[in-house]
Amino acid sequence: GAGVSQSPSNKVTEKGKDVELRCDPISGHTALYWYRQRLGQGLEFLIYFQGNSAPDKSGLPSDRFSAERTGESVSTLTIQRTQQEDSAVYLCASSLGLAGVYEQYFGPGTRLTVT
Amino acid sequence: KNEVEQSPQNLTAQEGEFITINCSYSVGISALHWLQQHPGGGIVSLFMLSSGKKKHGRLIATINIQEKHSSLHITASHPRDSAVYICAAIQGAQKLVFGQGTRLTINP
C-alpha cells in the first residue's frame, strides 16, 4: 500500500518568504508527527496530531511555525518569514495511534533551503 | 547533557563482526524506538520496546528500564547495514526525544 508522502521533495526559498509543506499520512493512521533534521544534526520533534487536534506544540521553534491537519488526513506545516536557520529536512511520520504502542512510518522528507 | 545519549557516535567494523550500539536516557519514558536512517535519508522504524528484548532477523534490541539503557545489536554485520542508527525515547503519550545517532560503516 501507499506509504507516507510529502511534498514538495525540495524547496528553495528566499529569506522572509512563507513556505507550506505538505504531508499525506497512511490512510487510517490517526496520529501524525512533524520532525526537523538540520544538516549534520539529530532529529527534533516539532508537533504531533491525534486526529486533527494538536495537544503538544511545545516543539515548534517559534511563532513563525504553525501546523494544521484536516480530519485524519493531510497536514500542512507553515513557516512564515523564513530565516536561514530554518534550512533543514522536514520529516513527517504517521502511526495507528499512541507512539508508545504503534510504530511510526516516516515520509521521505522535504528539504528546505532558505537563501 | 542531552536527555538521550548514544554511543559510539561513529563505528566502523569489518563485515561479519558483532555490532553493539548503546542508548542511555535520563527522562521517564513509556517506550523506546530504534530507527535506521539510510544514506539517502529515508528513515525506517526497526524496533519499539518498553521492556525486555526483541529480535528481528540479525537485529536484537534490549532495554533495561531500571538502568535507563537500551542496546541495539547486529549479528553477522553486512555492508548493507551501513546507516545511521537512532534511538528515540517516548515521553508521555506521544513526544519523541531523539539521540544524536550512531553512524555505522561496515567494510567488506
* Radius of gyration over C-alpha positions of chain B, nearest whole angstrom: 13 Å
Order of helices and strands of chain B: EEEEEEEEEEE
Strand elements of chain A, count: 11
Q: Termini distance of chain B? A: 36 Å
What is the H/E order of chain A?
EEEEEEEEEEE
* Oligomeric state as shown: heterodimer
Question: Count of helical segments of chain A?
Answer: 0
Strand portion of chain A: over 45%
Number of helices of chain B: 0
Distance between the termini of chain A: 37 Å
Task: Briefly summarize what is shown.
The complex is a heterodimer of chains A (about 120) and B (about 110). Chain A is about 0% helix and about 50% strand.
Write up this protein:
The complex is a heterodimer of chains A (115) and B (108). By secondary structure, chain A is mainly beta. Chain A is built from no helices and eleven strands. In chain A, the strands form two sheets. In chain A, strands 2, 4, 5, 6, 9, 10 and 11 form a seven-stranded mixed sheet that branches. In chain A, strand 4 and strand 5 form a beta hairpin. The radius of gyration of chain A is 13 Å and the shape is globular. Chain B has 108 residues and is an all-beta fold. Chain B has no helices and eleven strands. In chain B, the strands form two sheets. In chain B, strands 2, 4, 5, 9, 10 and 11 form a six-stranded mixed sheet that branches. A five-stranded antiparallel sheet of chain B has the order 1-3-8-7-6, with no helix packed on it. The N and C termini of chain B lie far apart (36 Å). Chains A and B meet through strand 4, strand 5, strand 9 and strand 10 of A and strand 4, strand 5, strand 9 and strand 10 of B.
List keywords for this structure.
heterodimer, A: 115 residues, mainly beta, seven-stranded mixed sheet, four-stranded antiparallel sheet, 11 strands, globular, B: 108 residues, six-stranded mixed sheet, five-stranded antiparallel sheet
